[in-house]
Amino acid sequence: MIGSTISHYKILEKLGEGGMGVVYKAEDTKLGRIVALKFLPNHLTSNEEENSRFLQEAKAAATLNHPNICSIYYLEEIGDQRFIVMEFVDGKTLRKKVPIQKTEEVIQYAIQICEALQEAHGKEIVHRDIKSDNIMVNSKNQIKVMDFGLAKLKGSLNLTRTSSTVGTLAYMAPEQIQDGDADQQSDIFSFGVVLFEMLSGKLPFRGEHEAAIMYSILNEEPIPLSSLRSNISEDIQAVVLRCLQKDKQKRYQSMAEIVADLRNLQKGIAPAVPSVTKNRSMVFPIIAAVVLIAIIAGAYFYFSSKSFGVKELSNTVSSTADVSLHKSIAILPFENLSDDKENEYFSDGITEDIITQLSKIADLKVISRTSVMQYKHTEKNMRQIGKELGVGTVLEGSVRRSGNQLRISAELIDANTDEHLWANTFDREMKDVFAVQDDITGHIVSALTITLNGTERQAMSSSRTANPAAHDLYLQGLFQFNQFTGESLNRALEYFQKALQEDPRYAEPYAGIASTYEALADFYLPPHETYPRAKIAAQKALEIDSTNGEAHAAMGIVLAEYDWNLSAGEKELHRAIALSPNSVDVDIFCSQCAGITGDFDSAFAIVDRAIALDPLSPVASWSKEWYLYWGRKYDAVIAQHKRTAELDSNFLYWDDILGAAYREKGMLKESLSDYLRAQKYSPDRPLFGLAITYARMGNISEAKKILKELEDASKRRYISADQIAMIYANIGENDKAFEYLEQAYQAHAAGMAGLKIYPEYDIIRSDPRFSILLKKVGLAR
């Protein structure tokens, strides 16, 4: 279109393009002035809703006449083209100017933005998309608020955007994210984000993906401005924090209030801001569950054997192992009989709910989800299954779901005799699903003659919701979480967050959020993006339900691994064992504690119990390989690895530990072969262990090639610095090794907890700098 003339407007150049319009600079040949023309994109001209939104923008903005609002001149229609003729602003967006060094200039801009929005709000217009990209600073250093394309007029059509929430996510108020609604207080929240950005150059709520940003806005406090800018006053911080209150009733109630406080700041007068916004503490109730996959992701931590008492932990765990075969059960995957096979998540969720409830009983051995899922759609009889899993009873069942109606059937079977101990069919509504599950677990407890204590009864009845929609969304999130890919974990976060929108006091979605962030830690995202969020989740959990053992264990992981607060971690872990005596996750967590401290006898005792509870899990078997490896029992690693590989030959990490054991044993050709096979299976995963093997073989050039790949990749995404440090140590560049170890220490990389026991560091242990680092992490006294 450049150079063409439409009506009496000569197109000069393209200024920009967004989801709701293409903007050109043009000359109005009649009036001899420069204007901006905004066209609806061609591919949307046939869309009635987008046309309506375009007209709504024109109608909204045309009613506004203010020096800080971009003026609308005309609405033109030539043929099938519609465009708005508006004021041409010669300048740059506010985003290109942040951070702004002078606080006085920030306040000056902020007042102009507020006054522009005050004008709009006075005409009952809500902008709904305030962000630094929609605010211009012209050549006279004057603010112009642009793009009322998402504006909402009182009495106008409630237009929506298909498959998206109106507004730009990082600037959106909590209520916009939760239900898409927006009012003047929503604009105030978005303005607070812009003010924060002007002062710091950063956004107050951040994340690596949309779900993480949403979670941050809804649950987390903004990043302290003082940590980003040292010379900032408490008074302006107080203004920002009041704008960013999650409860909109606690925010400023009008732009006029903000202008008054900003003008007072210009005069050196402290704003009349409630003290709660000046020193806000974060106490968010959340439930969290320890996830085994966080360990797979490289999340290792430690407890000092003197301060932690690992021997006592081993005794506590093993005391629950001696249950009779009669008091043992496997809950087989409930069969989905629904016409809609998309309901698979629901039948799996019923299975997992029952396993979780029964796992809180100390006098009952309950096989973990990983192992029982191996029998989905199995044709094996109950005797075979009982023998393979080492249990005396098996529960099988089915679920048929049609709209709001449920039919759940369940049978409790003696695995030795095939005798039916109990059976029932429940025809209920969705809202009764928990009552059905409680009935099933109650009959199991009765049939196996188990007596519950008070703590067990309380734990089994906690963490529930009365909202069927919230429960359904939670189960969908759980289903996505169990797929464990980067994409599915992000989807899981979205489902858990939606469940909380339905019921903010529902504990289990918080558990899912915490579990997901721990799964993302050190593998998909850096520790500072994940562990603090998991900690918030654990805090929420323990406020809602203090009897949730896995929540205590989740808190223990963060305290010990990320905060390095050992005494607090010890307390949480002891509580976790007492509350979740059947949890494989907690067992693995405890065994790892023992292994990190070098107490391998205790580690083996605990992990063997975990293997008994989850006999078909490659992860439990693989965990034992690590303790053997740390203990320098390389032949035993190789033997144990055969069992792991039999359980799942495609297990993500299955060749890494074997390759490492061969290498430390001196079998370098075998080590190289296993690492290369692992690299073929997962080519995108950098294998630092392969580089170390190359170094031990004297092939330094290949080791450095992998090293460069890792260093280059670390500029684009998070890679734990301790992996790079290991390579440098093994090619003899000790200074670089310690440089990267310091980076890993500063980042609280989970692998730092293994400094004391990892064989890869043996080559630099005599260096005085290594002893200093051990003390800094707390691994030496």
Give the mean pLDDT: 80
Name the poorly predicted regions.
153-167, 275-324
For the record, the CATH architecture of the largest domain stands as Alpha Horseshoe
How many helices? The count is 32
Descriptive notes:
The chain is an alpha+beta fold and 781 residues long. It has 5 domains: 5-87, 2-Layer Sandwich (Phosphorylase Kinase, domain 1), CATH 3.30.200; 91-277, Transferase(Phosphotransferase), domain 1 (Orthogonal Bundle); 283-322 and 466-616, Tetratricopeptide repeat domain (Serine Threonine Protein Phosphatase 5, Tetratricopeptide repeat, Alpha Horseshoe); 328-449, ABC-type transport auxiliary lipoprotein component (Rossmann fold), CATH 3.40.50.10610; 622-777, Alpha Horseshoe (Serine Threonine Protein Phosphatase 5, Tetratricopeptide repeat). It has 32 helices and 17 strands. A 6-stranded antiparallel beta sheet has the order 1-2-3-4-6-5, with helices on one face. Strands 12, 13, 14, 15, 16 and 17 form a 6-stranded mixed beta sheet that branches. Strands 7-9-10 form a 3-stranded antiparallel beta sheet. Helix 11 packs across helix 14, helix 17 runs antiparallel to helix 18 (507-520) and helix 24 (618-630) runs parallel beside helix 26. It is globular, with a radius of gyration of 30 Å. The model is unreliable at 153-167 and 275-324 (pLDDT under 50).
Key phrases:
single chain; 781 residues; alpha+beta; Phosphorylase Kinase, domain 1; Transferase(Phosphotransferase), domain 1; Serine Threonine Protein Phosphatase 5, Tetratricopeptide repeat; 5 domains; six-stranded antiparallel beta sheet; six-stranded mixed beta sheet; 32 helices; 17 strands; 49% helix; globular
